[in-house]
Amino acid sequence: MGMTHLEFLYGARIYGCKHCNAHFATIESMVSKAFQGQHGRAYLFGGVVNVREGDPNERQMTTGVHIVRDIFCVKCDEQVGWKYDRAYEVSQRYKEGKFILEREMIKTVE
Hints:
- Helices cover about 0% and strands about 55% of the residues.
- β6 and β7 form a beta hairpin.
- It starts with 13 loop residues before the first strand and ends with a strand.
- The mean pLDDT is about 95.
- This is Protein yippee-like.
């Protein structure tokens, strides 16, 4: 299978996997802290690295029905959040193409 190539990020604050420290996103790519995940608080990011996307599926969420893909750390394969592929509500379309990282699954890394 080979070794996984990880992308390293640089910035004032870097969020990464709480299990293996793989980098996911910087504070600069954060869109909002006002989200709820399966494990509590969650953050919306414009882009993330070092994740593997699962298959798309339709999911009923508090803001309506969305097509989402679970995302997994490429290093340790832990599920860390999801990606919004499609929002049916016009007011929710700003989420399309963005990523949720669950606060319980990430930490600030060096």
